[in-house]
Amino acid sequence: AQSVTQLDSHVSVSEGTPVLLRCNYSSSYSPSLFWYVQHPNKGLQLLLKYTSAATLVKGINGFEAEFKKSETSFHLTKPSAHMSDAAEYFCVVSAANTNAGKSTFGDGTTLTVKP
Amino acid sequence: NAGVMQNPRHLVRRRGQEARLRCSPMKGHSHVYWYRQLPEEGLKFMVYLQKENIIDESGMPKERFSAEFPKEGPSILRIQQVVRGDSAAYFCASSPGQETPQYFGPGTRLTVL
Q1: Which pLDDT tens digit goes with each residue over A39-71?
Q2: Of the candidates A28, A12, A32, which has an alpha carbon nearest to the alpha carbon of residue A20?
Q3: Are B13 and B19 in contact (CB under 8 A)?
Q4: Looking at residues B55-82, what average pLDDT do you find?
Q5: Residue A80 main-chain phi, psi, to 5 deg
Q6: Smallest Cα–Cα separation from B1: which of B111, B94, B109?
Q7: Per-chain mean pLDDT for chain B
Q8: Closest by alpha carbon to B70, among B53, B56, B45?
C-alpha cells in the first residue's frame, strides 16, 4: 500500500521569497517520488523525480526536492518565488513491486505568489 | 516527439449520453494510465493499461466505465449513461515502462448537463 500526504492545501508567499511545499509519503516498497505542477486549465508537467539515486533532486524552473527516508518526506523547495510559479502542485508516489505501477497523488497544494 | 495527446479537450454531454475520451501516448510508450480529477480535488487513479491488456482497473467505478488500449490506435475511456457526478477532468498519462515517470496529457474536461 502507498499513500501521500501534502501537509498544506494552500501556501502563500511573496515574490522573491523562498517556497516550501511539504510532502510525506508511505510505501511498503522503495518508492519513486515525483512532483508535478498544474497551471490553471492546463495539463500536468513533471517538475522533478526521485528514483533511488541522489537524495537531493534538482528539477526545472529552479525547484528542488530532498528525499529523506528517515522522515518519509519529499519536500519541494525553491529559493526565490516568481509570479509564474503560482499553480497547483502535486506530490506523487509510485512504488516498485506493485503489479500496476500506478501512481498515488497527494491532494495538491495551491501556491499563491503575491507581488 | 509530440507529447501525450488527448481529445477532445472539452466535452459536453447530457445525462444519459455516452462519453468517449481518447488518449494517444507518446511515441515509444506502451503503458497508459487514466486519472480523474473531480472539482476541487486531486487526481485519482482509475486504470492502467498496456497494449490490449488491462493491468489494473482498481480505480474504475464498477458500472458504466470501461477502458481499452487496442493494438492500433489510441486508448479509449468510455463512460456510458453519464450522470452529473461524472463531470471532471480526465487525464491520461503514458510511460515507457513501470516506475518511469508518467507524462501527462492536457486532459479532457467533461461537463454533464
Answers
A1: 876 778 889 988 777 889 999 999 999 999 999
A2: A12
A3: yes
A4: 94
A5: -145, 115
A6: B94
A7: 91
A8: B53
Q: Which of A43, A98, A99 sits opposite B105 (nearest CB)?
A: A43
pLDDT (tens digit, 9 = 90+) per residue, A9-19? Answer: 999 999 999 99
- The half-sphere exposure of B60 on its side-chain side, counting CA atoms within 13 A, is 20
Q: How many C-beta atoms surround the C-beta of residue A102 within 10 A? A: 22
Cα–Cα distance measured from residue B106 to residue B109, given in angstroms and rounded to the nearest whole number: 9
Chain B residues 33-52 with a CB less than 8 Å from chain A:
33, 35, 41-45, 48
Whether cis (ω within 30° of 0) applies to the bond prior to B106 is no
- The conformation of residue B40, written as its DSSP 8-state character, comes to T
Query: Rounded distance, CA B54 to CA B40, Å?
Result: 29
Interface test with B, best of A35, A39, A102, A104 (most B CBs within 10 A): A102
Residue B94, CA distances (Å) to A67, B7, B53, B73, B91 in order: 24, 15, 14, 14, 10
Given a contact cutoff of 8 angstroms between Cβ atoms, the answer to whether A15 and A81 are in contact is yes
